[in-house]
Each structure stands twice: as C-alpha cells, then as structure tokens.
Design goal:
Blueprint (H helix, E strand, L loop, with lengths): L1 H12 L10 H7 L4 E4 L12 E6 L5 E8 L2 E15 L2 E8 L2 E10 L2 E9 L4 E4 L2 E2 L16 E3 L3
Antiparallel strand pairs: 1-2, 1-10, 2-3, 3-4, 4-5, 5-6, 6-7, 7-8, 7-10, 8-9
Length: 153
C-alpha cells in the first residue's frame, strides 16, 4: 500500500495542478471538503477533537485551519495545489510556517481521513492511514488517523 501511495504522489506531483484550470477552492467545493470538520461535531474543539476548517480565499486557494480548543488555532496552512487521485481520493499540497506538506485524503460521503502526509524534506507523518510517530500525546504512533465528519454549520 505504501508503494502505491508513493506512486500516486509521484504521479500527482508530475502532473499539472488541475487539468481544467479549476482553482483549489473549486475542486475542494466539488469534493465537498469546504466547511468545518471534526471527530465529533457535537463537542467543542479539543486536543482529542480537532476541528478542521477549509475556507476559500479570494485568490482561489483554500486556507486549512486546525483548532485544538474553541478559538485556538493549532496550525494553519494554505492549500496551493490540489489533484483528484480517484473518485474518493484527493491530493493537496499545503504551505505554512512548517513548510510544505503533501497530503492524500480519502473522502467517503460526509467523512474523510488522511491516508498519507509527508513534508517537503521527506518526513512522513501518516502512512497507509496510520500515524508514523507520536504526536505529542504518547499514544498515536501506529494508530489510524482520525476520521472527521462534516459539521452542519
């Protein structure tokens, strides 16, 4: 599976950003990704219930913000490149204070989770849908990346 994800990533990075000149926001809108997502939408943002907001920007890109407490930004990135991998998978390249991170998501109905995540230097955070190292909580290495559900707001 890991080799397949690397191959997909290589193919995506070697192709134009969008075949039909869609903006990042248009592609994410078509995929249903714009808006707020959480592990549990009925509970406030917390370290065990991140809220993720995908918000379109005027230039056609999208800002992705993680909240780990109400109104507290954990991290924020701008999605500058996006490609459909398949009917239920999406690749995007995001840039922020930690540099560039390339992500592949699987989107199923009103849920998604990260299949792979790797920074510009090759450090892998998620492989085959599982965290590769501890994320500060001492428990996440080897665990599946969380499935997030689209919130109604």
């Amino acid at each position: 599976m890991y080799r397949r994800l690397l191959l997909v990533l290589a193919l995506v990075l070697g192709t134009p950003a969008t075949a039909s000149a869609e903006t990042v926001a248009q592609t994410l809108r078509q995929f249903g990704l714009l808006g707020t997502w959480a592990d549990d939408c009925s509970k406030p943002a917390a370290n065990n219930n991140f809220h993720t907001v995908y918000a379109p920007l005027k230039n056609g890109n999208v800002e992705r913000t993680y909240y780990n407490a109400p109104g507290k930004i954990y991290n924020q990135y701008v999605l500058q490149r996006v490609n459909r991998v398949s009917s239920d998978q999406l690749f995007y390249s995001q840039k922020g204070s930690a540099g560039r991170i390339d992500v592949v998501l699987i989107v199923t109905g009103n849920r998604y989770h990260v299949l792979s995540s790797q920074n510009q230097n090759g450090k892998v955070y998620v492989r085959d849908g599982k965290f590769t190292e501890h994320a500060g909580d001492g428990k996440s290495a080897g665990l599946e990346s969380p499935w997030q559900t689209k919130c109604n707001n």
